[in-house]
Structure formats: C-alpha cells, structure tokens
Amino acid sequence: MRIAVIGSINTDLSIQVPHFPQRNETVVGHGDYVISQGGKGANQAAAAAAAGAAVYMIGCIGRDDFGGRAIEDLQSMGVDCGAVRRDPDHATGLAAIYIDPAGDNCITVAPGANAALSPADVRAARDLIAACEIVMLQLEVPYETIDEAVRVASEVGTTVMLDPAPAPGRRLSCLAQVDVLTPNEVEAAEMTGISPDSPQACTAVAERLLAEGPRHVILTLGARGCFVASPGQQALVPARVVQAIDTTGAGDVFSGYLACALARSLEMTEAVSIAVAASALSVTRAGARASLPHWDEVLAFRSSEDGRRG
Ligand code: RIB
Predict the structure, then answer these.
(1) N or C: which end of the chain has fewer CB within 10 A?
(2) Does ligand 1 come within 6 angstroms of the Cβ of 288?
C-alpha cells in the first residue's frame, strides 16, 4: 500500500481554555501551552503510516528549527520526506489551537511555507504520485497546487481523496476528478448552502456534491457518525461513543485510516467503519497526532464493547 500526501506541515501551539474567546476578549487558559507536530497534510500522512501504509509526503517547510523537528517527527513515524522542500524565504507553518473543556477546538493557521507549495512541486513528484495507489489532498496549501495534483493523479491513474478542509470559500473546479470527498459538517454546509443536520439534509447535501463529480462523498458528522454516499447508494456508519479529551486532528486520523483501508481494497462502508474507530480512539488522547493508534489496536477497539457502542 503506497500513499502520497500533498499538503501542509505545521507546528501546533495549543492552549487549554475554559471557553473560546469572543471578539476583543482575552481568555486566560489552564496551565502551560503545548508545542506539538501538526498540519492537516502531515497529520494524515502520519495516520496512514500508523495504519500500515508506505507514505510519501510532498510539502514545504521553512529552514527553521520548527521545520527540522517536523521532518524528524514524520520520519520517526516512517513517512518518507524526500519530496518535502525547505524554502529559505518562509517560516514553517504554525497553528494556534484552543481546546475547550469538551475537547473541541478552534484553530488559526499562519501558513508560512505551506503557501509556497507550488504546482511545480507537484509536477516534480509526478513519478512518485504515479507509483502510489492513492493521493491524499486537503486545502491548507494553495488551490492551484491542489488542482494540479488532481490533474496529475488523474493522468497517471492514482485514486484521489480530497478532504476539503479548511472550508474552501470558493467553488472547487477539480471535483469531477476526485474519487473520494470527505467534508465535515461545516465544510459540507459551506460548499452546498445546506446544513447536514438531519437524514434528509444529509441526502440533499450528498446529492448536491455528487452532482459535481466525485465518485464517493463521505460526510463526517462527529458524534452522529458518517454519511456515506455514492450514486444510487447511501449508508450511515454510526460513531463510537468515547470520552473526548482533544478532537484536534480527529478528521486527519479518519482520512489517513480511510486511505489505508481503501488501499487494502476494503469495501467503502467497512473502510469508513475502521476510520471512524481510529478517529474515536484518537480523541481520547491529547494532541493532533501523539499516540496515533495502530491498525491492530483499531480493529481490536472496533470489536470491543466500547468500540461497538454507537
Ligand atoms: O486538523 C488539525 C490540524 O489543523 C492541526 O494539526 C493544525 O496544524 C491545523 O492544520
């Protein structure tokens, strides 16, 4: 199983807060801040590696210490970083993250070097993309770069998974060539103008997105599970009930596991069910990717009492 990830690499700076700040409000958090490794692209790469895939990261970092640590961390997880470029003109991306007592988060990102990941970087990685079964994309790098990645992947026959996060704020012209689209509630609402807050609304959202071309749409609905839709087929995969400590990166764990499960040729709802279990396990631990669960651990959790309760 070979998976390429084209996307962001960040340093995460997290603070536990009693509540999220309002406009012009200063909120005093609890205890010390935590610096850890993040970025939607890098998190998804790490999750796919934890799930057992051979993973190749294509990204851009600065020549600063944060960039060096980001690479070391990815390499320690087995991710190949040969296609990560170091840009002398930018700092490595940084995310400021607030985590509330429910474990929910609020994130702002200074993209830094992520904004310099270019279509030329993607073209330089064409052979790598061609050698992978799946390429995973998100929207924390420039859209022209994502567009080029989708074009190259289609040309070389590599399956495209797009996590449209953060919410795009524009029409995505590449959707016709996307195989698997995985918006969360906020992104799905922004992309369609319909909030997926009922089964009927989920159907309407999925149909609207499928009409733009992706082969599969998977709405990730947090505690409500996942709504899986393909032309003529729809299913709800229930969530796993866990005590959330930190939901940061839960969507990235979901994506990494889903890619790996699909690369193992599992059927879509089975793959989503495994990805849901992996994501549920991850929110019981702090940090976007500290203590990522491994494949066998996820399967054991899924068949345990805790993992079965939806
Ligand atoms: O999805 C979580 C990630 O979003 C964090 O790691 C942060 O870096 C931002 O990219």
Answers:
(1) C
(2) yes
